[in-house]
Write a structure and sequence with these properties.
The chain is of the alpha/beta class and 735 residues long. It folds into five domains: 6-233, Rossmann fold (3-Layer(aba) Sandwich); 241-272 and 285-431, Ku70, Chain: A, Domain 2; 437-478 and 520-541, no CATH class; 484-517, no CATH class; 553-733, Ku, C-terminal domain (Serine Threonine Protein Phosphatase 5, Tetratricopeptide repeat, Alpha Horseshoe), CATH 1.25.40.240. It has a seven-stranded mixed barrel with strand order 9-10-16-19-18-17-15. A six-stranded mixed β-sheet has the order 5-4-1-6-7-8, sandwiched between helices. Strand 2 (21-23) and strand 3 (26-27) form a beta hairpin. The radius of gyration is 38 Å and the shape is extended.
């Protein structure tokens, strides 16, 4: 469909006049190909359906349909490099290669005539309208001579009108800047400026004036290279066809107003996603497959995909859920709807309650006068009462219902008159987060916390200096309509560079991408005095906050005294000085179990210590024996064992720790977790011996032997379930 497709023909001057240096060390031709390439990359990334053609002016070859010896029509040195088609990487590569000017000078107006022929030939060959608009873009500094007269230019303008070419653009020369040619550096001028329009510039200026008089376009669309480079640096987002959401706005049981809604604001994201590829051959697709296993001891048993169903955690239980269960769970009895629940004062629906990734605008269908009249009455009544509609919204037949607000919007100006409703999603109770914050001004110390008159006056002045109004030059520049997403711009530029130069490193961030997100220089200078004054009136001091835990947890390298082999006792300096943190830890988790254990035992007396030890043992067994790859959690478990040992020594209760460590060693060796046991030995994590606590039943010799021996444990002794054995062991210890 041609609803938004555009046909664009690029006319690129590659003649001798394009060798002039115009941007740093780049020639006019290099800047032209850079701008053109960026424009096409933009279309490529957004998957545009627009089509492009390329005409070379001043080429060494002559290849175009209009050139004919028989008809005595000469279009020499004009080459049709490419007819109209979608953007492709081949097209981009051919344009990049057009970087060396020829020694020939071509006539730009002949090239425009050839471009016009491409558009006319396409229209004649098509049985239906393929494009909604047509455009010709000329890249030239107009240094080449032309044989066109004003009468021929007038005829060309009328032909452009007849072919429905809506826009003619010139990149390389700003004709509104006056007759002064831009400064160039070449062998003839040596950087001097040549005054006066060239013949080609005069004829181009006349062509624009004629197009304006024919009302084909409103202004001379001619741009300097500097403006073109700045414009082409930014990529535009994909043009999305506005698709209406049609429904009935139900006011009660009988009044149902037909409405249509469009997404006016929607969070933009690149359509393409990151894909996996082979580094040596990115064009060879990778096939991904998923396999399922269950762990039975040391063996993995494969599960067929048809035997796998989804499940949802309900507390600590995984509840199975089949595809049929999911289907029956859908809101099939709700359906597509927009039902009014009531009305609320606009002041009561605060802006911070608006949710969702888009904002819709709603109006009545075009041509439905009854709906337009009814909706207009509702909009004006809401505007008068300063109220909004609260409604239930269902996008389609199986969507979960949502809560929305509909606020009135009336816009009347010279260009248009619009009446409609803005559509915002509202939260449910589950979506709200309640916070209570202390007052910024302390009633008990008002003199210290409440700003004085001088501070308020200075802040008011600062706000006044930075207030943007339509009279400011910065007002339009800071409009969201003028600022592209820097992340998307950086992504597209990096992809463009990598596609054309696969062997070079991606260049650093172009600071121009952030220019529009910085305060304009004029406002910085304008508010400088107020900023300096506020710095003195509001002295800022850094407030040091204590971390929740001084211990860095399992991700921090910790020096254990037992590591040096001199002692197996761990001296920990961890102090849980945050009472709030202590109150929040109710169980030992798998993220930082050692930290959780220390917090819990700090609040436990000897009677409850056994309980905490039970929980620690359960977590150790869960991490090592009940996970897919238990060995990867060895470091976490060792930190927890250190904490358990340390606390057992402090409380003079060595028996519980020693009995568990013996049992844990047997389980590790029996189930072939030798790597975990070797780490324990390397850390010198030993039994608590009599040399440390006289109440221990383990001698120093037995402790030394414990780390050295690898006694096999008969398998028949290990039939007791882990959880049951833990409970029995600790019940015996503390009975």
């Amino acid at each position: 469909m041609a609803w938004n497709r555009e046909a664009t023909v690029f006319v690129l001057d590659v003649g001798a006049g394009m060798k002039d240096v115009v941007e740093g060390k780049m020639t006019a031709l290099e800047v032209s190909t850079t701008c053109m390439t960026r424009m096409l990359h933009n279309k490529l990334f957004t998957e545009s359906k627009d089509e492009f053609a390329l005409i070379l002016c001043g080429s060494e070859e002559t290849e175009n349909r209009l050139n004919s010896d028989v008809a005595n029509e000469r279009y020499d040195n004009i080459k049709t490099e490419q007819d109209l088609k979608l953007v492709s990487w081949e097209m981009l590569e051919s344009m990049v290669n057009q970087d060396q000017p020829t020694a020939i000078q071509g006539d730009v107006f002949d090239a425009i005539r050839v471009a016009l022929d491409i558009i006319e030939q396409d229209a004649a060959a098509s049985k239906r309208k393929r494009f909604a608009s047509r455009r010709i873009v000329v890249f030239s500094n107009l240094k080449s001579p032309t044989a066109f007269s004003t009468s021929q230019v007038d005829t060309l303008a009328k032909d452009l009108q007849q072919a429905n070419v809506g826009v003619l653009q010139l990149i390389g020369r700003d004709l509104d800047a006056g007759p002064m040619e831009p400064a160039v550096r070449n062998d003839k001028t040596h950087g001097k400026q040549a005054k006066g329009f060239s013949d080609a510039a005069k004829m181009m200026n006349h062509l624009f004036e004629k197009l304006i008089s024919l009302k084909i376009q409103d202004t001379k669309e001619s741009y300097s290279y500097e403006d073109a480079v700045a414009y082409s640096t930014e990529f535009t987002t994909r043009v999305v066809r506005p698709t209406p959401w049609k429904a009935l706005l139900e006011l009660g049981e009988t009044l149902k107003i037909p409405v249509v809604a469009y997404s006016e604001v929607k969070l933009a994201a690149p359509k393409q996603t990151w894909k996996k590829a082979i580094a040596q051959d990115v064009n060879n697709p990778i096939q991904q497959s998923v396999e399922y296993f269950i762990q039975k001891g040391l063996q993995r048993e494969e599960i067929k995909p048809e035997d796998v169903i989804e499940g949802h955690k309900y507390g600590s239980t995984l509840v199975p859920f089949t595809a049929d269960d999911k289907l029956s769970m859908k809101f099939t009895n709700i359906g597509k709807c927009l039902k009014v629940l009531g009305f609320a004062s606009a002041d009561e629906v605060k802006n911070h309650l608006y949710m969702g990734s888009d904002v819709k605008v709603m109006t009545a269908p075009e041509g439905d006068q009854a709906a337009q009249k009814a909706l207009s009455g509702l909009v004006h009544a809401l505007e008068k009462e300063k109220a909004v509609v609260i409604a239930r919204f269902g996008y389609n037949a199986i969507s979960a219902p949502k809560l929305v607000s509909l606020s009135p919007h009336i816009r009347e100006d010279e260009k248009e008159h619009f009446e409609g409703l803005y559509f915002h999603y509202l939260p449910f109770a589950d979506d709200l987060r309640m916070f209570t914050f202390p007052s910024l001004t302390d009633d008990d110390q008002k003199d210290n916390t409440k700003p004085n008159a001088e501070q308020l006056t200075t802040m008011d002045a600062y706000i006044d200096k930075l207030t943007l109004t339509e009279d400011n030059d910065e007002f339009e520049a800071t409009s969201p309509k003028q600022i592209n997403n820097p992340y998307l711009q950086r992504l597209y530029l990096a992809l463009q560079f990598r596609a054309l130069k696969p062997d070079e490193p991606v260049p650093p961030l172009d600071e121009r991408l952030l220019d529009k997100l910085r305060m304009p220089d004029r406002l910085v200078k304008l508010s400088k005095a107020e900023v300096e004054q506020m710095t003195g009136l509001f002295p800022m001091k850094k407030v040091e906050t204590k971390p929740r835990f001084k211990n860095g947890g399992v991700f921090q390298d910790e020096a254990h005294p037992g590591d040096d082999g001199n002692s197996s006792v761990v001296a920990s300096d961890t102090k849980n000085d945050s009472k709030a943190a202590q109150d929040t830890v109710k169980n030992i988790g798998t993220i930082a179990p050692a930290d959780d254990f220390r917090v819990m035992v700090s609040k436990a007396d000897d009677g409850h210590f056994a309980n905490v030890m039970k929980k620690a043992v359960a977590i150790i067994n869960q991490l090592i024996f009940k996970t897919f790859e238990g060995s990867v959690y060895a470091d976490k478990v060792i930190l927890l064992l250190y904490a358990m040992r340390e606390e057992s020594v402090k409380r003079n209760l060595p028996g519980s720790f020693n009995d568990f460590l013996r049992s844990f060693k047997d389980d590790l060796l029996e189930k072939n977790f030798d790597d975990v046991w070797n780490k324990i030995v390397a850390k010198n994590l030993n039994l608590i011996s009599k040399s440390e606590l006289t109440s221990s039943t383990v001698s120093s010799h037995q402790a030394t032997e414990f780390l050295q021996s690898r006694k096999e444990v008969p398998k028949e002794k290990k039939n007791i379930p882990v959880a049951a054995k833990e409970d029995d062991m600790f019940d015996e210890m503390f009975s």
